[in-house]
Amino acid sequence: MLIKKRKPNLRFTDFKEDWVFKKLGDVGALISGLTYSPKDIGSNGVLVLRSSNVQKGVLVFDDNVYVNSVKYNPVFENDILICVRNGSKNLIGKNALITKEAEGVAFGAFMTVFRSDLNRFVFQLLATNSYFRIIYQNLGATINSINGSDLKKFIFFFPKEKQEQQKLVNFLTAIDNHIQTLEKKKTLLEQYKKGVLQKIFKQELRFKDDTSTSLSTSDGNAFADWEEKKLGKLTYKVGKKNKENINYPIYSINNQEGFRPQSEQFEGLDSNDRGYDISLYKIVKKETFAYNPARINVGSIGYSFELNEVIISSLYVCFKTNKELEDLYLLAYLDTNKFNKNILRYEEGGVRQYLFYENFSQIKIPLPSNAEQTKIANFLSAIDKNIELVTKKIEHTKTYKKGLLQQMFV
């Protein structure tokens, strides 16, 4: 075994001994997953953990598969579940710690389990850049995978003293717990917004014409009854072509952030870097909506807010609203189940479905007065600001931990 004496840049002051190199195979065992076929999948079998059950370093159970099998290697608390094969190379190596409630279930053949007395330390080690560099260096040439024999040979630095290992684990686990608490808070806020959103557009919750921004207050008078109008009567197409070939900032639309610089969306490259003809692109001014007609079903629609004079692909549909429809009210409506159902109703095409503006304009929207639209938009925007604040705290804490990992591990 190769041993080198090294020390991390940042460590607890009561430890002085050098760290040592060790292979993963020397500190623990790697256990293979269950191979099964589609005919083995059932509704009452054993839960099989797969790549989709590992999200952001924790186990989730939104996409479960059950297999009618009695012979498998069960997982135990503190095992590390590692993805060793996937269609996307970016997912190889992602991992999660098995929690007590997941004990005894199976895991699939594209996963492996690492088991040792040092698992909580190794779990933090597997969050470092060094680990993922080794993963990428060992990926298969034609298949996005790593095998168990290679994984066993991965070499890392370990503290010589168990007390230092434990102190590191306790410190970093406390940060992980804080991140998970913030993630849960964000999820609860998102669920609350979704529930309120549906009730508002079903008119189960109403505002009144007072100065309050709360729902269903006892003060004030009720607003006028809502109407229903087609979006074609409330919006109009825009999107002047960039015929002069001006080098405007290039943007894309995604289903998480809406408008986003194209270079951030596509690994640092934009259409200029790829040599595309940007004279065909559409110029977007502020307060403009844009969507991908082939991806609106997954939420690829954005609002430019104050973003002005950027360009997007000619494939996007761009439109603005008239004075009867408040932009932020429409933005809220686009996030409802009712709108998503209308997408399915008005889409057209063969293998791929499209919602072009002609069909989009046929969708009907429930329309309160402008004053009530504004109140609804402001109320929902306040929730969005809370969600954004929590999101920033999550990202800040993750960045903080990432910096610590770089300094506290060799």
Structural description of this entry:
- The chain is of the alpha+beta class and 410 residues long.
- Helix 5 runs antiparallel to helix 10 and helix 7 crosses helix 10.
- The strands form eight sheets. A four-stranded antiparallel sheet has the order 2-11-8-9.
- It has ten helices and 22 strands.
- Strand 15 and strand 16 form a beta hairpin.
- Among the domains are: 139 residues, Adenine-n6-DNA-methyltransferase TaqI, Chain A, domain 2, CATH 3.90.220; 141 residues, Adenine-n6-DNA-methyltransferase TaqI, Chain A, domain 2 (Alpha-Beta Complex).
- Helix content is 32%, strand content 19%.
- The mean pLDDT is 91.
CATH fold description of one domain: Adenine-n6-DNA-methyltransferase TaqI, Chain A, domain 2
Biggest sheet, spatial arrangement of strands: 2-11-8-9
Low-confidence stretches: none
Computed Rg: 26 Å
Distance between the termini: 18 Å
CATH class of one domain: Alpha Beta
